[in-house]
Amino acid sequence: QVQLVESGGGLVQPGGSLRLSCAASGSIYSINVMGWYRQAPGKQRELVARATSGGTTTYADSVKGRFTISRDNAKNTVYLQMNSLKPEDTAVYYCHAGTYAYPIISWGLGTQVTVSS
Fold it and tell me: What pLDDT shows up at residue 80?
């Protein structure tokens, strides 16, 4: 099993920045995809950004140019730098980990991000 622990959420004003972190532990030898989803109240969970161990990144159109995903493979940690935050970015952000064939085999518990003045 793979355990994921997220940190870095909080309350920020519109236009501000936050950085989320997600550390993986356990049976991580097979993990080569890590990323972030988010779920706002009353909405479906949606992909925000994903990164492979080979360096390929994928972003939702709504966050392109504002969010940056990065990985530290030595620390088994993925980061999400979020800049120019908007109220519509408010959601619970969930880290995920998986393989190329099955990108989601583990979820973190989630961290709340609230963008409000």
Answer: 98
